[in-house]
Design a protein that fits this description.
By secondary structure, the chain is α/β, with parallel strands linked by helices. It is built from nine helices and twelve strands. β5, α4 and β6 form a beta-alpha-beta unit.
Length: about 270
């Protein structure tokens, strides 16, 4: 039985994770953590998730509950996720992180934490999206540099970062396949008299509307034709299930910094 601690356990992803862990025959929820001052602190995590009592109280502070956990599943925010990874490193445990909006410094901090524990981070935990990352790279390579690349992502109105981590990961995958430097070639939206599109541009556009869970479309536009590849997430369960698949995979692995490509056996 894999003992799981969930951070951000009263949030949209946290409550989904609590429910899915409760339903799994091979997982046990041993801790549920929220930020200091959260109104749900002290309540049963299962009741907050709408699945009835599970005997685990929402508490603040990850460090105190780590001795009883095998793996932490974290969907919070960049700053908190880095701090959680550092706490897990001190305890020598494992952590799966699905937070987005991480800076280069944040990612480097996670890599350093992976020297003392097991850290798995992905900007999107969906299995389908992680297959898509491989597919768009192959399509870009086969179509070649004469096809324009544009990426459009749509999320719910509450999402705080833009563009999404998944859109950036897709852009990075395409850029690597085409031998381009994303930092130099990315164009984030367009406004005004911007002139003709540059041949090396990779356009990235963010839409925020309603309760959209997450849509990503990569457009390859060439002379006389257009190829569009789309992934649509219709439920947060797809991210939670991917994270729990990653947690199971991470059990028993050596210390290190991993991604979903490792889980799927698709790492280069």
């Amino acid at each position: 039985m894999l003992r799981v601690a969930v951070t951000g356990a009263a949030g949209r992803m946290g409550t989904t994770l609590v429910r899915l862990v409760r339903e799994a025959h091979d997982l046990e929820l041993v801790a549920a953590v929220e930020r200091p001052g959260h109104p749900a602190l002290g309540r049963d995590a299962g009741e907050v998730a709408g699945v009835g009592g599970v005997g685990v109280t929402l508490t603040e502070g990850l460090e105190a509950v780590l001795p009883g956990a095998d793996v932490v599943v974290d969907f919070t925010h960049a700053e908190a996720s880095v701090a959680h990874a550092q706490a897990v490193a001190r305890a020598g445990k494992a952590i799966v992180i699905g937070s987005t909006g991480l800076s280069a410094a944040d990612k480097e901090a996670l890599r350093r934490a992976g020297e003392a524990c097991r850290v798995l981070w992905a900007p999107n935990m969906s299995v389908g999206v992680n297959v898509l990352l491989r597919v768009v790279a192959e399509v870009a390579r086969l179509l070649g540099p004469d096809y324009d690349v544009e990426i459009v992502e749509t999320h719910h109105r509450f999402k705080k970062d833009a563009p999404s981590g998944t859109a950036l990961a897709l852009a990075e995958s395409v850029a690597a396949a085409l031998g381009r430097d994303l930092e130099a070639d990315a164009v984030y939206g367009r406004q005004g008299l911007v002139g003709e599109r540059g041949a090396r541009e990779i356009g990235i556009h963010a839409v925020r509307a309603g309760d959209v869970v997450g849509d990503h479309t990569v457009v390859f536009g060439g002379p006389g034709e257009r190829v569009e590849i789309t992934h649509r997430a219709t439920s947060r369960e797809t991210f939670a299930r991917g994270a729990l698949r990653a947690a199971r995979w991470l059990a028993g692995r050596p210390n290190g910094f991993y991604g979903m490509a490792d889980v799927l056996g698709a790492a280069d």
